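Give me the 3D structure for NADP-dependent oxidoreductase domain-containing protein.
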Amino acid sequence: MSSSNVPIFTLSNGVRMPSVGLGTWQMTGDQGKTVIRNAILSGYRHIDTATLYQNEDQIGDTLAELFAEGVAKREDLFITTKAFCHEVAPDVIEEALRSSLKRLRLDYVDLYLAHIPAATKECGNHRTNVKVEDIWRGLEKLYDMKLTKAIGVSNFNENQIERIMKIHKVPIQASQLELHLYLPQKAHRELCKKHNIIITAYATLGSPGRMSVVGADGNPLFESTKNAASELNDKNVKALALKYNKTPAQILLRATVEMGIVVIPKTTNPDRMKENINIFDFNISKAEVNLLEAHEKSKPERLFWWPNVADHPEDPFAVERSK
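Predicted structure for NADP-dependent oxidoreductase domain-containing protein (323 residues):
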């Protein structure tokens, strides 16, 4: 699969972002290095990571090897990383990005995101005096310093985005959030369209790997969502997969890109990695995309609840938790 076949979306400041990237959550060690190499060789030019994923070192080492081998050039890649809760406050975010750049062995990233809008101390205690407006001003400073080509948010709700858009000097250029067939995020999509913000969806395929994450109490962190329905088994998805001779995963990814949304599917399997980017050799109609969205799920099904920020003044899911 050639990277030239992947549609490119353009952020509001003109930065070009491939519409399909590789998500790297839970990829560490030598496996992480192998996966990144396989991804670049398979045509991926967009890599999504974060401090939280603890794999920036492996990604940086692998990219340096690929650059030295002439397999890829830095200017042809789009690298996203994120500042986690203990890094998003304006007094620590510059150090956080410089540390990420050192691990990634890069002079800049293409997109830097605040991973979640709730600031904490390194020990996890909430920093309740840090507001999303403060977080954004810190990101703007990094943008002005040219340490990142674009800045954005992750897991922010609509109200928090609107608050930033009232005080910004540099507008929000990207928003990453959980978005899939059974959590379509229509209000968020409308808001981002209004403000010319590109959306990146995570968990497009249901993130089955989430069930292997264990909390401090020794129990699965996302135990409450273990019985969530899988969109891969949705009857309309399966019907389109049969029609186009594609996998259900390919249908879900292509439909999401057709909505103008970037996807970052995660897999360590080389064959599935190629399948996930080989989604542009067939045409799915707007009517078929609408059919997928007209599913029978009356209540959105969130998979990731981020319990570490519950009760924080900037908890983005406070309203949903109260229902």
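The first strand starts at residue 8 and ends at 10. Let me know if you want a second pass.
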